[in-house]
Amino acid sequence: MPTQNNPFPIMLDAMVVTSEYITKGRLPVLYVCREVDEEEETWQFHCGNGDFTMERMQLVRLDNILRLDDTLVALAQLPAGHFATRESIDAQWKVAALPEE
Question: What's the average model confidence in pLDDT over 36-63?
Fold first, then answer.
């Protein structure tokens, strides 16, 4: 599914999980994960502060996240079941497997 205009394996209008820290507070995305189970694939984009309370979570289109931070295209091929973190928007991403539940 990746194309020249969209290197992600999901459509640009696919819904992804983020928080108001990113969309309203304009904090940088420092944590990204790609979870896949038998039924669906979920991408999450967070600021890394550990606050995942439902009141702060939002569903937004992938292209909206990419408009906020175009450096995220570097993670377009993040393997399923993995996450990536960085210390700042200018830092290198560190990728690791998500812990098994």
Answer: 93
* Best CA proximity match to 89, nearest among 51, 32, 33, 24: 32
Number of H helices and E strands in the chain, helices first, is 2, 6
Please state, in angstroms and as integers, the Cα–Cα distance from residue 81 to each residue in 2, 68, 70, following that order. Answer: 18, 24, 22
Say yes or no to pLDDT of 1 above 70: no
Q: Are 56 and 19 in contact (CB under 8 A)?
A: yes
Distances (CA, A) of 36 to 33, 44, 96: 10, 11, 15
Q: Which residues pair with 45 in a beta bridge?
A: 32
